[in-house]
Amino acid sequence: MASNDLSEAIQDYVKEIYKLAAAGERATTSAIARRMGVAPSSATSMLKKLAALGLAEHAPYHGAVLTAAGERIALEVIRHHRLLEQYLAETLGLGIDAVHAEADRLEHVLSDELERRIDEALGFPTHDPHGHPIPDADLQVAPSTLRSLTALAPGEEATVRRVPDGDADVLRYLADLDLVPGGRVRMGRCEPFEGPVLVTVGEREHAISRELAGQIGVA
């Protein structure tokens, strides 16, 4: 079963379940519904469909887990998406705040042949413009060695390698701060009681939320 044999909705659901698991979060009905922007009842109905198709296992109140077949579909869609993002950024010059939405529209219709040609034309990239790994042609993903920005010690410097990719406003905000892949950052301090994180980029100090800092990967 290939991703193109399935509806866009099914592809989107398995992709989000995979991404929840990859982030170390449990794919509960409420978490899936929140990421998909639907009511929990709609998410429950889709999870039953995924189970019937052999793409996921779902136990009420325990969340969903992708089967091997479901994980393969998810990785195929993610590969399409991230290759398209890299193509749009590198070849057409779109900003990192714009490529995600465009790739969302195109990922479901990308043929295997065009995927292969894009991959070859780009020199077989390993990461998208936001620093997220691109599954290779065998749908293997290299393990990440990145730390989150919040893990830096006061005074420690690092290079930004990954930023969250789903919110264009957040990406524009990070771009304004020069907190983008390839940029250098120095940790100031984390304020107590879940307060903001103070970082220095260039000559400027910025206070960003601890939640956002936790989504920025550095090396």
Which parts are unreliable, with pLDDT below 50 for 5 consecutive residues or more? none
**Percentage of residues in DSSP E strands:** 15-25%
**Which of globular, elongated, flat, extended, rod-shaped describes the shape?**
globular
Rg, Å, rounded: 18 Å
Average pLDDT figure: 92
Record field, number of beta strands: 8
Secondary structure tally, helices: 8
Helix content: 40-55%
Account of the protein in words:
By secondary structure, the protein is α+β, with helices and mostly antiparallel strands. The protein is built from 8 helices and 8 strands; from the N terminus they run αααββαααββαβββαβ. β5 (184-190) and β6 form a beta hairpin. The longest helix has 23 residues, at 68-90. The chain starts with 7 loop residues before the first helix and ends with a strand. The mean pLDDT is 92.
In short:
The protein is of the alpha+beta class and 219 residues long. It is built from 8 helices and 8 strands; from the N terminus they run αααββαααββαβββαβ.
Task: Quickly list its features.
219 residues, 8 strands, alpha+beta, globular, six-stranded antiparallel beta sheet
Topology:
Elements: H1 8-22, H2 29-36, H3 40-52, E1 56-59, E2 63-66, H4 68-90, H5 99-106, H6 112-121, E3 147-148, E4 157-162, H7 168-176, E5 184-190, E6 197-201, E7 204-208, H8 210-213, E8 217-218
Antiparallel strand pairs: 1-2, 3-8, 4-5, 4-8, 5-6, 6-7
Helix pairs in contact: 1-2, 1-4, 2-3, 4-5
